[in-house]
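G., the chain you wanted modeled:
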Amino acid sequence: MTIPEYLELIEANIHTDKPKTDQLNRKNRPVTLMRHFLRTNLWSIISGLVAAYFLWVFHLQTGFPPTASLTTTSATYLALFVFFLVAPFVQKLRLGKIIEFEARVEEARAEIKDVRTEFRASMDEKRFRN
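Predicted structure as tokens:
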């Protein structure tokens, strides 16, 4: 997702933690939107920085084009680079019985839709009562 598409999503009020429009005046609007973008994409940013670090260390070990042979240490750095590069995009991550992470994006979207429809129905009931 590109930044302009993300800003359009924020403007379309898809995200629930969108700042109120009266808080978004011309002076602090870019700062508020950037804070929101960083808050929601922090894992991707940190993972990308860590991946860049491991690529840099791999480059220091082997050179570009590779002048030194591929050792166990440099192969480990390369594997860590690939791991952190792909980490934000995986749906399920499991490291033995210690760590298990599963992104339940579709379930979360369905729950959000259910909550929205229930909220709108309750608001409509209140309007008809008055």
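Residues 91-130 form one domain.

Shout if anything looks off.
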